[in-house]
Amino acid sequence: MSFMLSSALRNLPVSSAWAAGVFTRSLSCSSQFQSSAQTKTKKSLGKSGVKNVVVVEGVRIPFLQSGTTYADLMPHDLARAALQGLLTRTSVPRDVVDYIVYGTVIQEVKTSNVAREAALGAGFSDKTPAHTVTMACISSNQAMTTGVGMIAAGQCDVVVAGGVELMSDVPIRHSRKMRKTMLTLNRAKTLGQKLSLISKIRPDYFAPELPAVAEFSTSETMGHSADRLAAAFGISRLEQDEYALRSHTLAKRAQDEGLLQDVVSFKVPGKDTVTKDNGIRPSSLEQMGKLKPAFVKPYGTVTAANSSFLTDGASAMLIMSEEKALAMGYKPKAYLRDFVYVSQDPKDQLLLGPTYATPKVLEKAGLTLNDIDVFEFHEAFAGQILANLKAMDSDWFAQNYMGRKSKVGAPPLDKFNTWGGSLSLGHPFGATGCRLVITAAHRLKKEGGQFGLVAACAAGGQGHAMIVELYPQ
């Protein structure tokens, strides 16, 4: 980021003491772990002449670290399991579903439209259309909002949206030289032509092209971007470790107390039934401090402990028009209200999507930060979260980079990701958006709130934010 940005933002008030203080306050805050409170009803966000779109239910199979129990499966296997979990929990007739949309990032070449393959495998009618979308870490967000748009436009009444990612088995390609030779060889008609092509193959042709979590436009990995962002905003290694420890501690508590209601068990073929996420591992600041920098060596601050890990998993959500849901006898969990997508410079502002999206979605909905009872932000890196909080609380950043007169303000941490986040629960790229939304809905009911705000950054310098409103109880 520019020198002016770095110099100005290092002086903004995010200190180690502040991070430790909010960590303690968020752990001691008991409201999120107690029985449902009385909802503080504000004005609903329903709009005249616009269909209300509701979430009936959302589920996910357990999110697992890549290379573990799901390692021998394919993406559509995971997506199918999530869809079957949704069908079991809701008992929705398969032929009632008008459309299926799934998000994914690194596509398996054999099932490029994974939505269709998973739907057929889950027993949906072959007459039910399905398509797959990709928008990096907000792919299932895009799947959901695509469904919202189809319902609001009157094209559908019932949509299933979801996302899937299998990082245990990603496509590895031959080099371009080898691919070109093999394609040409396939078209050769005579033995002489084939032998001539084969004779041109050199050892370097066999070097594979390995996939990388990197920006095509900048060739920079997201971890490097996170390290630079943390440095620009003056976020220390200790602050990042403290935040990561907070995420794991809160996730473990939520898991132990049965609050992660969206998780459905999955009997993995040939293996045991998986019932819970396996990446939740509260440690200690001392142990976390021993890890070496993962990207910018030797002086970087982003490590394996304060980054989200490569994750396998899938999610699915049943979205309906309110009228259809009530006619079928369902009690919806939440309304899906206003949403926005943003994009900015993928070099210097790759991970600041929530900062740009939050004020826009609040203005669109006619709300302020104080109206939000629950915040669910995607945690790509601890440094990314803390940098966004710092940017959101900066008048200088708002005026110089966002063209705004004043800051939107930082969400209070006693309302922020209080059941853990991607750092601890895991982050299957294509599936996280649905987890954020259904968690917001469950937290609103548990805590007696009305409005939740979901936000996420994504590769390409993009971002998303959405308002979720609790369905009247």
TrEMBL record:
Domain Thiolase C-terminal, residue spans: 330-469
Domain Thiolase N-terminal: 53-323
EC number annotated for this UniProt entry: 2.3.1.155, 2.3.1.16
Enzyme class: transferase
Keyword Acetylation: yes
Major place of residence: endoplasmic reticulum
Keywords carried by this UniProt record: Acetylation, Acyltransferase, Endoplasmic reticulum, Fatty acid metabolism, Lipid metabolism, Membrane, Mitochondrion, Mitochondrion inner membrane, Mitochondrion outer membrane, Signal, Transferase, Transit peptide
Signal peptide per UniProt: 1-19
GO biological process, one term: fatty acid beta-oxidation
Pathway: Lipid metabolism; fatty acid beta-oxidation
Transmembrane regions listed in the UniProt entry: none
Recorded catalytic activity of this chain's protein: tetradecanoyl-CoA + acetyl-CoA = 3-oxohexadecanoyl-CoA + CoA; dodecanoyl-CoA + acetyl-CoA = 3-oxotetradecanoyl-CoA + CoA; decanoyl-CoA + acetyl-CoA = 3-oxododecanoyl-CoA + CoA; hexanoyl-CoA + acetyl-CoA = 3-oxooctanoyl-CoA + CoA
Family named by the database record: Belongs to the thiolase-like superfamily. Thiolase family.
PANTHER family (alphabetical): ACETYL-COA C-ACYLTRANSFERASE (PTHR18919), TRIFUNCTIONAL ENZYME SUBUNIT BETA, MITOCHONDRIAL (PTHR18919:SF153)
Function recorded in the entry: Mitochondrial trifunctional enzyme catalyzes the last three of the four reactions of the mitochondrial beta-oxidation pathway. The mitochondrial beta-oxidation pathway is the major energy-producing process in tissues and is performed through four consecutive reactions breaking down fatty acids into acetyl-CoA. Among the enzymes involved in this pathway, the trifunctional enzyme exhibits specificity for long-chain fatty acids.
Subunit structure: Heterotetramer of 2 alpha/HADHA and 2 beta/HADHB subunits; forms the mitochondrial trifunctional enzyme. Also purified as higher order heterooligomers including a 4 alpha/HADHA and 4 beta/HADHB heterooligomer which physiological significance remains unclear. The mitochondrial trifunctional enzyme interacts with MTLN. Interacts with RSAD2/viperin.
Protein name according to UniProt: Trifunctional enzyme subunit beta, mitochondrial
Lineage: Eukaryota, Metazoa, Chordata, Craniata, Vertebrata
